[in-house]
């Protein structure tokens, strides 16, 4: 299919976004596009470059943890046009804070993990790693 005259095929959009064909169909079923995706005379979906740009944003929002329901709400707000920018801003600010909170949690986890890496590295290099955090049997069978 010619990308200039007839738009983009689902395969071309899949290649451009990294989303599988099934994911693109899912996005359409969930009403996450900004417009109904038209079809060719042969029934094939016909996308535009703007659809790719929107999908890349949607995919980034999903990868950052935005629930489908929230993404659907955001898409609906954008689709409905000007006048609801404060609602869009609020939705994006809430998601931004959720992502910042998750990053903080991950950073705290990384610090703990890094501490264990340093400890294990020292013990391995010194040859004293044997028995490091070995399970300790408990209960009546402990002596067996």
TrEMBL record:
- Top-level taxonomic group: Bacteria
Any Pfam family from its record, for instance, is MerR_1
InterPro entries the record matches: DNA-bd_dom_put_sf, MerR-type_HTH_dom, MerR_fam
**Keywords, alphabetical:** DNA-binding
Question: Which GO terms of the molecular function aspect are on file?
Answer: DNA binding; DNA-binding transcription factor activity
What region holds the HTH merR-type domain? Answer: 7-77
Q: What is this protein called?
A: MerR family transcriptional regulator
Q: Which organism is it from?
A: Nonomuraea zeae
């Amino acid at each position: 299919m010619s990308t200039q005259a007839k738009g983009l095929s689902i395969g071309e959009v899949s290649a451009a976004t990294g989303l599988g064909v099934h994911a693109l169909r899912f996005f359409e079923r969930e009403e996450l596009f900004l417009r109904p995706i038209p079809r060719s005379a042969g029934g094939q979906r016909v996308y535009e470059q703007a659809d790719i740009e929107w999908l890349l944003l949607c995919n980034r929002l999903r990868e950052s943890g935005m629930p489908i329901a929230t993404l659907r709400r955001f898409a609906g707000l954008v689709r409905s046009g000007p006048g609801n920018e404060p609602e869009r801003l609020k939705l994006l600010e809430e998601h931004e804070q959720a992502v910042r909170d998750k990053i903080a949690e991950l950073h705290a986890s990384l610090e703990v993990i890094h501490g264990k890496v340093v400890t294990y590295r020292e013990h391995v290099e010194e040859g004293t790693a044997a028995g490091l955090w070995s399970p300790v049997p408990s209960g009546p069978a402990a002596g067996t």
